[in-house]
Design a protein that fits this description.
Largest sheet: 3 strands, mixed
Number of helices: 1
Helix content: 10-25%
Strand content: 15-25%
Radius of gyration: 15 Å
Strand order of the largest sheet: 1-2-5
Distance between the termini: 16 Å
Number of domains: 1
């Protein structure tokens, strides 16, 4: 996905898709939690965007797991409830 805001754009597209699908359900709600990750070729890190999912875990070389603290957005499908701008992906 081109551009530095690829994950933010993807989250927005997924959110709009769920909002459109909800309209066809006549009163039902659809939402999804997601942790979106992007690995850029030639890089040794991931960009992450946390959309209401459980916090991600990082597993170290000794197989110890630790919870990563990422800013969290609302789950996908709920963006109309939040008027604050989306944070950039965490690198």
């Amino acid at each position: 996905m081109p551009g530095d805001d690829g994950l933010t754009e993807l989250a927005g597209r997924l959110d709009r898709h769920l909002a459109r699908a909800t309209l066809s359900l006549q009163g039902s709600e659809l939402f999804a939690t997601a942790l979106l990750l992007e690995h850029r070729e030639g890089s040794d890190h991931l960009d992450a965007l946390h959309c209401g999912h459980l916090p991600p875990l990082a597993v170290g070389p000794g197989h110890e797991a630790r919870e990563l603290q990422l800013p969290a957005l609302l789950p996908l499908g709920f963006s109309s409830l939040d008027r604050t701008p989306s944070p950039p992906p965490y690198a």
